Amino acid sequence: MASNAAVAARLSEILDELGGIASDRVRREPAAGHATIDDLLKVHGTGGLFELVDGTLVEKAMGWTESFLAMVIVRILGNFVVANNLGVVSGPDGFLEILPLLVRGPDVTFISWSRLPDGRVPTSAIPKIVPNLAVEVLSIGNTFMEMSRKRHEYFHAGVQMVWMVDPRERTIAVYTTVNDYEILDENEILTGHDVLPGLGILIADIFGELDRQPTEAGG
Question: What structural domains does the chain harbor?
């Protein structure tokens, strides 16, 4: 077989290009580099949660706690977006083709009406839409380089703001450009900047859900 120095030939090289992720997150069929969106849809039909990156099906690294926090953010953010009729909010299985043949599934997304075709909720399984806001809840399985690559892809595609939620540190890194960010802790307010003007979420209200317990009346 012909080779080329610019093309990854070994799995280790592919894993490096994907951000140094674990090999068990890469689906071997179709072979890395040869998967299509049709292949992705077939996998999703079996219940798997994969993204399509460089022709490779990459499993999302996510646990129960990360999913729980994502849904907390969906609820809080969704209430604000609906109350102000700004657009739509989707959760961890809302996959989008943000660039040609690049499918990502942010844990939470906000999409304004102006970015939705004809101002309608999409009906396709993987719509070609770039969200205004992409939220990633960090899992132990995520690597620094993987999340850096995602952030660069998001802003290159046209995402306006990215939140990186760290459940273990209980902080949120708010990126307004690929390199401009601030790290907020539980004593601070998460705002929507120009993307969601008027939004203000006490970060303690997000992470505090991890500590919530039943009342005596609730059993």
Answer: 11-59 (no CATH), 64-210 (3.90.1570.10)
